[in-house]
Amino acid sequence: MYIWAALTAYNFDYTFTKKQAVKFLEKAADKKHIPSLIELGLLYSKGTGVELNKKKAAYYFNLAASLGSVEAEIRLLMFRILNNDKTLDLKREISLLKKYNKAGSVLAETVLAYCYQYGKGVKKNDAEAVRLYKKASMRGSQTAYNSLKRMYDDIRPDDKLFKIYD
Questions:
Q1: pTM for this structure?
Q2: Which of 52, 64, 122, 159 could form an S-S bond across to 47 if both were Cys, CB 3.0 to 4.6 Å?
Q3: Does 166 have pLDDT greater than 60?
């Protein structure tokens, strides 16, 4: 049911309505099914198939993290950083991201690159952001690739000679 619910939520399957898919995820989440908790966190954080609700998103990420999910902990860090959570201890959060990046998390690497790009908890460092985005995009992160592309687009001269696409 978890797989079907996720496929429905992201418009890959129309066997169920989005409401039914969310109900399936909620039933699984009630049984502490970690992937369902994370999926609900993602849905509520973006308003995909549900009304945008950052408190619910944080709740589901927190619950999954408390059950031992490293992915949920990284997603919670990302969620809090992107939403400028005022209760953040950025020094601690950056330390955790570095730890998870070192352990091989592409998501942590991408979030860390974002932090360097915008100076969140670390000194703004575009070169380090590019290095991390490039590494993460080479490992398959579409988000990192898009961020890297945007950074390059921002510094590319407007001259027609440098135009890559229309």
A1: 0.84
A2: 52
A3: no
> What is the Cα–Cα distance from 80 to 64, expressed in whole angstroms?
15
What is the residue extent of each domain of the chain?
1-84, 89-166
Is domain 1-84 in CATH 3.10.105.10, yes or no? no
> Distance between CA atoms of 88 and 39, rounded to whole angstroms?
23
Q: Which amino acid is at 76?
A: L
Check if the beta carbon of residue 132 is closer than 8 Å to that of residue 147: no
Overall size of the chain counted in residues: 166
Question: Phi and psi dihedrals of 43, rounded to 5?
Answer: -60, -50
For the stretch 71-93, pLDDT in tens is 999 999 999 999 888 888 899 99
